[in-house]
Design brief:
Blueprint: E1 2-6, H1 16-25, H2 29-32, H3 52-58, E2 60-64, E3 73-75, E4 78-80, H4 82-93, E5 97-101, H5 109-114, E6 120-126, E7 136-137, E8 142-151, E9 168-172, H6 177-186, E10 192-196, H7 202-210, E11 216-220, H8 221-227, E12 234-250, H9 255-266, E13 269-271, E14 277-279, H10 281-290, H11 298-301, H12 317-327, H13 331-342, H14 375-392, H15 398-411, H16 413-425, H17 433-442, H18 446-449, H19 459-486
Parallel strand pairs: 2-5, 2-6, 9-10
Antiparallel strand pairs: 1-10, 3-4, 6-12, 7-12, 8-11, 8-12, 13-14
Helix pairs in contact: 12-13, 12-14, 13-19, 14-15, 15-16, 15-19, 16-17, 17-19
Length: 503
């Protein structure tokens, strides 16, 4: 749904070239003074009390973002994206796993942040005054220019704002570009805006433009350059703002998290004595990979260039669905396990001799090592083993049985049995993964593992293994729902009903 917004020019004077040059070639501070930066609700909940100590204790950092090549997407089932990898680096430094939270349509990322469903918004956010009423911005880690992008169907290249008059500029209302255009209109420019109410990524609108479905839009310059790697027909027009600061957003009452984030970011971008931005080698590699890469990097972006492809989790979705149905398993969970085990590589063999996509150990399988290199056989064997573990814990609720089954798949039944006994010795519930996982960590300490039947275990690996798969599972579910929202399908076609994106 969209609406056409047209505001006539208020000032009939020789404003074109003079003001146009000022807007296009000066700094953007005048535009940033505009108060109507975004239509941000005044009904947001007060932020919950959850700072870095609580995040560390839980071991999970929840990242709020959108599904786009600039932030987060699936590359043949594997989680990728500039923001995702950057947040992942911060989390890894602090020994945390990352759970990706994708807002549902018309769901506010700020509300998700304040109610604790997420801990950090990482989605190419421009720092501005209005957002700062509700968020605490980190230090900047990027500077971008906002540029107008037009279609070749327009027939000419506009170089200044006055040359955009009469051209419908398609823009998402809840973006940082919208208030800049409103400011220009308020200053007298006769612009026509095609305002999109629903959530759309910049690149999806660029794709519409490349197909000739819209004539003009606005994008950050680095997103435009990345999109031009795999889209044709994108013509760069006037620059609207320069050197906008991009940052992560945090709750206003999380000073310890803010300090840790800023300390991390200060190692990757800083301003030298001449006012020039300097970046770490890691950040330069990320920027090149996602925004400045070669033509081959277009393969990275293909999964998100068309909304129709969002629902695909991996190249093996049909096979996962078929095998999961045979064993009464959740196919999305089965897919999450394969992603964790092998990144969907059917030929991988681990140092321990585990083979194929589900990393099945031949001595525990009814199949030979060679046959386990065949994806269908390997997935079926992995599903069979998981199904047996699920049955073993069938008296628990679904989440607990899956947690214990995953832990057993990773560490073996003996080590999980030992951990459950340790939990009972400490008056903890052996049927709750939250109680047993700390006991599994104790099997890394001599005073505990020397008293157990199966001895030492790398418990931290198993605890992280379970957490990573459950996090990925939740994100996969969100992507499926996002696909269903953008492309209605018959109920149940993907094997899920009543799913939630962000809670």
């Amino acid at each position: 749904m969209s609406s056409i917004l047209t505001i006539s020019k208020r000032y009939k004077q020789t404003l074109y070239l003079g003001l146009g040059s000022f807007l296009l070639f000066s700094c953007s501070d005048k535009i940033e003074d505009y108060k109507a930066i975004e239509s941000i609700s005044s009904e947001f909940s007060a932020p919950i009390s959850r700072d870095f100590d609580q995040i560390k204790e839980e071991g999970v950092l929840r990242m709020i973002t959108r599904y786009s090549s600039g932030s987060y997407f699936l590359d043949h089932g594997i989680q990728a994206g500039f923001e995702y990898e950057f947040v992942q680096a911060f989390a890894k430094y602090h020994g945390l796993s990352v759970e990706v939270i994708i807002p549902a349509p018309n769901q506010s990322p700020i509300e998700l942040l304040n109610n604790g469903k997420g801990d950090i918004i990482a989605d190419n956010l421009t720092i501005n005054e209005e957002r700062s009423k509700w968020l605490r911005f980190s230090r900047s880690y990027n500077k971008v220019n906002q540029v107008v992008v037009v279609s070749t169907a327009l027939g000419y290249i506009p170089y200044q704002v006055n040359e955009l008059e009469g051209i419908p500029i398609t823009i998402q209302k809840n973006s940082s570009y919208y208030p800049v255009l409103l400011r220009l209109m308020d200053m007298g420019w006769n612009l026509k805006l095609n305002v999109i109410e629903e959530e759309r990524s910049t690149e999806s609108i660029l794709m519409d433009l490349a197909r000739g479905e819209v004539l003009a839009t606005v994008a950050d310059d680095h997103i435009l350059q990345a999109s031009k790697k795999y889209m044709r027909g994108l013509i760069e027009g006037p620059v609207l703002t320069r050197n906008d600061d991009i940052a992560w957003a945090l709750r206003t009452n999380a000073p310890i998290l803010e300090k840790q984030v800023n300390s991390f970011l200060s190692q990757h971008m800083w301003i030298d004595e001449n006012g020039t931005p300097k970046r770490s080698e890691f950040l330069n590699v990320l920027r090149k990979k996602y925004f400045e890469g070669s033509r081959q990097m277009a393969d990275y972006f293909n999964p998100v260039k068309d909304q129709q492809n969002i629902g695909a989790l991996s190249p093996y979705d049909s096979l996962m669905q078929q095998v999961a149905a045979e064993f009464g398993l959740d196919w999305v969970m089965l897919t999450a396990v394969a992603a964790q085990e092998s990144k969907f590589d059917p030929t991988v063999v681990s140092w321990a001799g585990a083979v194929g996509m589900m990393q099945v150990i031949p001595k525990y399988s009814e199949q030979t090592a060679d046959s386990l290199l065949i994806p269908e056989i390997n997935i079926r064997e992995g599903a069979r083993i998981l199904s047996e573990h699920i049955q073993h814990y069938s008296y628990m609720d679904s989440l607990e049985s899956w947690s214990f089954a995953l832990a057993t798949y990773n560490a073996g039944a003996g080590h999980i049995a030992d951990a459950r006994r340790i939990a009972m010795d400490h008056n903890k519930d052996p049927n709750k993964w939250a109680d047993v996982s700390p006991s599994l960590l104790k099997k890394m300490e001599p005073k505990y593992y020397e008293q157990t039947r199966h001895g030492y275990a790398r418990g931290i690996e198993t605890v992280q293994y379970v957490q990573n798969i459950l996090n990925r599972y939740n994100t996969y579910k969100a992507i499926i729902v996002l696909s269903q929202e953008s492309r209605p399908e018959p109920k149940g076609i993907l094997g899920f009903n009543n799913l939630k994106i962000a809670g």
